[in-house]
Amino acid sequence: xxxxxxxxxxxxxxxxxxxxxxxxxxxxxxxxxxxxxxxxxxxxxxxxxxxxxxxxxxxxxxxxxxxxxxxxxxxxxxxxxxxxxxxxxxxxxxxxxxxxxxxxxxxxxxxxxxxxxxxxxxxxxxxxxxxxxxxxxxxxxxxxxxxxxxxxxxxxxxxxxxxxxxxxxxxxxxxxxxxxxxxxxxxxxxxxxxxxxxxxxxxxxxxxxxxxxxxxxxxxxxxxxxxxxxxxxxxxxxxxxxxxxxxxxxxxxxxxxxxxxxxxxxxxxxxxxxxxxxxxxxxxxxxxxxxxxxxxxxxxxxxxxxxxxxxxxxxxxxxxxxxxxxxxxxxxxxxxxxxxxxxxxxxxxxxxxxxxxxxxxxxxxxxxxxxxxxxxxxxxxxxxxxxxxxxxxxxxxxxxxxxxxxxxxxxxxxxxxxxxxxxxxxxxxxxxxxxxxx
Amino acid sequence: xxxxxxxxxxxxxxxxxxxxxxxxxxxxxxxxxxxxxxxxxxxxxxxxxxxxxxxxxxxxxxxxxxxxxxxxxxxxxxxxxxxxxxxxxxxxxxxxxxxxxxxxxxxxxxxxxxxxxxxxxxxxxxxxxxxxxxxxxxxxxxxxxxxxxxxxxxxxxxxxxxxxxxxxxxxxxxxxxxxxxxxxxxxxxxxxxxxxxxxxxxxxxxxxxxxxxxxxxxxxxxxxxxxxxxxxxxxxxxxxxxxxxxxxxxxxxxxxxxxxxxxxxxxxxxxxxxxxxxxxxxxxxxxxxxxxxxxxxxxxx
Lengths: 438, 301
Known about the structure:
Number of strands of chain A: 23
Largest sheet of chain B: 6 strands, mixed
Number of helices of chain A: 8
Oligomer: heterodimer
Radius of gyration of chain B: 19 Å
Strand content of chain A: 25-35%
CATH architecture of the largest domain in chain A: 3-Layer(aba) Sandwich
Number of domains of chain B: 2
Radius of gyration of chain A: 24 Å
Largest interface: A-B, 89 and 74 residues
Distance between the termini of chain B: 37 Å
Helix content of chain B: 25-40%
Number of helices of chain B: 9
């Protein structure tokens, strides 16, 4: 019998890039995503056949690649995309998780959701229309959520006869917008594409000899996958205390969690929050054994040198640079629910691994997504509103400014009676804290 | 791991899944892992072991048994439960057929009959979090599924009422009688699953590797002879070298012709494959364009 696990040289390791797409209705986003899947051979024969059958049924002469990504029946019937969909494709060097966010109705909800885990966002515009109000809204949300890198994909360049002048003008408009939102020029890449024809998506287009930049896929393969949280100070929200209680491991207490930011190694001085007890890391390990160190994104178990009371909801942080602990939090809210928010509301707040009660204090100014300025104070928040707010929590929380650490600067607001997620919260004012033009 | 050294894709996916297991252990009272003996649920159990090591997995397993099983898979299931010291609940479709709560379908396919025994088992055991091996790359309706997905007292999935899922903060709040389906390997592709199985040396039932089997052709698939009926009419049994890509109800899970006897060969075959695993080998998913969406809404996996 052959050992099925007989290993083989699998070549270099592949890493994983999480990215999001955003765009307004009719800018061809589904076609672009379908094109990426198709050209990376991530679409298999039965899916292609299904799309070809459906395209013929709809009276189309060529396969409609957007049908590859319209998942729900209501979406196919109405020809729209309702909800964030996740897509997967890979190349020899990298795997991609794509959060495909639809651009209408609940655009804030969808864009915020897709952007929250993205290390890059592809924003689409139609070459015939350039930067429109929806582009500004999406870019503002992506900046607010601190997505580190942007791609502006100028789509449908076939419909403007591949006119370099028109495309350069759009790139210039968008460059100004991105700078005003705090993006450095080096973090923004403009790529002229035709998703329909395939120009500059996975293959270089024959019609844009003047374009010297990367194709979309080349760019996605080459950007760093690490977000800024990797270089931030160490944070570990404790999810679970592992206590085997066996004879050999009688005193074993392992604090299990996913490293939110920074790096941890044995011997590091840490502080357990919110209590503020200082101790030292005795060991960092996984089920596979001890680790020399562990960085952001890795699920680990941490053992401490001192026998102290640490339970789910606590946070272990770098002793030299811990987050402030407070029961008063100034934050920016993205309101995601139909039910409006009024001052004085009593809700639940989930931050890290702790859920606590919260009272909403005064509402601050409201973001005008057209001008990307905070304007007058609203009486209540409606769905898609983004506003500053002050909160008072029942328990003190170790919160970082969202602009400093995304993972420990974000929180959810939850409706106690229904359990629904009402808002995405960002500690502080991430837009105001955006770095100056680079 | 030092700053600047990025996680390998499989490490990133493993860490995400372990995070999900630990969140559920921290926030729910009575979780359970759905276990079919197939590769995805075997992977789930492996990840759960790693999430809580050196302590045991703090959840039982639940197998919804259609009665149309491969003996190798049942033997594999029992050995795994024994080795890990887990508790196994079995909900049997045949109990429902015997007392008339369910009736056999004309086509003999039993996968759709699993929904009621599953929901009853969840209610009877008061399970509040149910881990499944569903992946978003399997099928279009699943692409929109959350990692933690609320189901009402009827087990129904409402795609229009899904909670937004942000960062790695999962909202598993539910009312009594409701439960949450949890999909820790949502972001894995079929190829990721196979690569990880190879890396971790995870044992699988033999039917995933090429073997000789008496099969007959139906609807473009190779079905095995068994108590589920067939061959019938003009269908004839023949001996073929086949393997299975999914483990499901014997009446509707087809084998593919394959000579892949090692994981390397399986991975090479999956890489080159022209058909997705469900489209190739699951008759129940082929029934209509929206087959999976409808079954998810009714409370299927």
